[in-house]
Design goal:
Length: 97
């Protein structure tokens, strides 16, 4: 089964940190075969107490999703992501087609 990160994020408040995160994320995504699927927030987000964005990142397996999160390169990238906006990240297993 596939693995997913589901990220609930607030508005981006630090554009420079977001740009740095995006640049660091690209090779990490390639390494783990991650596919980013930004959802249409207007139709996907039904209840929220602070989130304005929803992003789903698909991995070939739950193990890959967890390994990516624990990767030291991602931990460095994450430091920019959490500066860019408030967010919550959940890792789940399933098949979201």
């Amino acid at each position: 089964m596939k693995g997913y990160w589901i990220i609930f994020g607030g508005e981006v408040t630090d554009q420079d940190a977001q740009k740095q995160y995006s640049a660091l994320w690209k090779p990490i995504a390639e390494k783990y075969q991650a596919k980013v699927k930004a959802l249409d927030t207007a139709s996907a987000l039904k209840e929220s107490q602070g989130s304005s964005r929803v992003v789903v990142v698909e991995f070939p397996s739950l193990e890959a999703a967890k390994a990516c999160y624990e990767d030291s390169a991602y931990q460095e990238a994450k430091s920019f992501a959490v500066r860019a906006s408030k967010r919550e990240l959940v890792i789940v297993e399933g098949d979201m087609t």
